[in-house]
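Limitations
The structure tokens in this dataset are predictions for the assembled complex, not deposited experimental models. Users should treat interface geometry with appropriate caution, especially where small molecules or nucleic acid strands are included. An illustrative entry is reproduced here so readers can see what is and is not provided.
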Amino acid sequence: MTPFNRNFGQGRSREGITPDMNWRELTKAGNIYEPGNANTYETGDWRTIRPMWNEERCIHCLICWRYCPDASIFSTDGKFDGFDYKHCKGCGICANVCPTHAIDMISEDEIDEQKEARENEE
Amino acid sequence: MATLKELAQVNERFVGGHRLCAGCGHGISVRMVLNALDNDEHVVVGCATGCLEVASTIYPYTAWNCSFIHNAFENAGATISGVEAAYKSLKKQGKIKEDIKFVAFGGDGGTYDIGLQSLSGAMERGHNMVYVCLDNGAYMNTGIQRSSATPLGADTTTSPAGTVVPGKQQPRKDLAAVMAAHNIPYVAQTAISSWQDVHKKAKKAFEVDGPAFINILSPCPRGWRYNTPDIVELVKIAVETRFWPLFEVENGKWKLNKKPKKYVPIEEFLKPQGRFRHLFAPGNEHIIKRIQEEVDQRWLALLERCGEKPELPPR
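Predicted assembly:
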């Protein structure tokens, strides 16, 4: 997985704020001019268990989307469209509210071990 | 009533990348409330200091995909009412054309205790705003200190359960009733166990002309010490045991939204939570009994207010 982004507020349109800036260079009164730029700060590495989607069982009810505290479930045209692993913190609520058990929570360590084993084989 | 398929097309106003704990009830509640607004509606959000505020606006980031105004712990109501008054004036002068909604979020510390005076003032002055209280029953942000929303018997760092004191000794404040006594157009109590209920009440609160208040039960995995993924079941049990009744008060008229058919003892709600674990130790049965009496009494009073027959379902 690519390293997670800690970009000090560098959003889509503005220059970032870096720790070495002095007070004159910071925004006036600590204002933040770009709404929703927390989206560029990635919390995915908090996760110890990862939600995995089971396509056959999913009925696209979007209850998982409704109960995700991190807005980390994508939907397009009213259909489930994958997890946002860059922000998902792995709380496991989606797997618990899913009426058809279409989401499995899998340990990140296990995934890493499997990946390592595969790489060693090659 | 909109379906989830339609609601999922609405702009996300509280985006990922905020630093709330994994599985925090606040994230769910805030997304549900703001999702009741349409795409073309403008909203200004203010937050009382608390977990939500410090986790969503860490400089130089903001998780709010809308206008946000920072203020202190005790004045979320005053700040948003001031912004609303300025907007009204500018609109009258023709400097602003759009319609803008105003909403303040506060935790139970910033609403039940510290922010009560500014909230009361804002409600009394009749500003066109919505105040949403996210009740997790303690000052979770500073390390789980008791607040006046903490339930009787709960173990917190300032009401620790030990050999002499068995957790918090006072029952909780009934804030929704206090707000209803302000005679404002809309007061509601809701919980995330039913997203339809939250959506309906948030929509009503935004549409009403004048102040509205919503109280949402928002579990805290760290402070309540339950199994994090079980949040929805836990809230459901809170409603079933009648610890957290769902009701609304429209223009002084009380209405019960959910009447649990069966009698579910309060133990069902207490058991999954670590903050009540000490109550199940021998010698502490009398506190559970007191909690049950408290819940029953409040339920009967609520039924009476709602114009229903005040009786409990058979045990």
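Some entries come with short summary sentences. For this one: Chain B has a mean pLDDT of 95.
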